[in-house]
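User: Just a sanity check before I run the rest of the batch. Below are the structure tokens for the first item. I only need the designed sequence back.
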């Protein structure tokens, strides 16, 4: 009898503690699958392509994609993100973080010049940090009840990537970052 009571108490405790974890995990579940991100590696350069639907209006997607002051609050691998300089359509942004994949992790930092063409295009060009070269283009287009986001980047890291997991790490980090941005778009919606 005591054994049966202890078993049910433990089962209830396990259920009570795991349900909130499962709910939190579902709320933070990736909205962008790693298989949606196309990555090619040529020498040390990675080419990244992603096309996805954001179920929010273009203005809402734009607001999140250009909220560099608060990106470290909603993108898990960023520890800091700050705007160093600002004009009407050009920003200079510094970001730091850690890329993780399995047991491998590496810190990164970048300084980028961001050219804004509201509300359709965001171009970024690397200026410094431990990324040797970085150029990216994000295009936004109204699509049905949401926004089509098309992303292309060419990146030459200034740090070592394990040859076998390099593309997988880039694919994972890209999916994680865009999932976080989509979660933020939906949260603000």
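Assistant: Here's the designed sequence for the first item:
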């Amino acid at each position: 009898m005591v054994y049966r009571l202890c078993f049910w108490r433990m089962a209830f405790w396990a259920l009570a503690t795991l349900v909130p974890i499962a709910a939190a995990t579902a709320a933070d579940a990736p909205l962008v699958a790693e298989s949606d991100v196309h990555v090619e590696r040529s020498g040390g350069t990675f080419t990244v392509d992603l096309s996805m639907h954001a179920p929010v209006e273009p203005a809402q997607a734009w607001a999140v994609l250009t909220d560099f002051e608060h990106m470290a609050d909603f993108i898990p691998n960023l520890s800091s993100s700050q705007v160093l300089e600002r004009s009407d359509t050009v920003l200079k942004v510094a970001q730091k973080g850690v890329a993780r994949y399995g047991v491998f992790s590496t810190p990164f930092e970048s300084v980028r010049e961001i050219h804004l063409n509201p509300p359709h295009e965001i171009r970024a060009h690397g200026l410094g940090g431990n990324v040797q070269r970085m150029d990216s283009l994000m295009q936004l287009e109204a699509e049905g009840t949401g926004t089509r986001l098309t992303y292309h980047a060419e990146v030459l890291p200034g740090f070592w990537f394990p040859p076998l997991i390099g593309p997988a790490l880039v694919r994972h980090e890209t999916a994680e970052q865009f999932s976080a941005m989509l979660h933020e778009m939906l949260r603000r919606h």
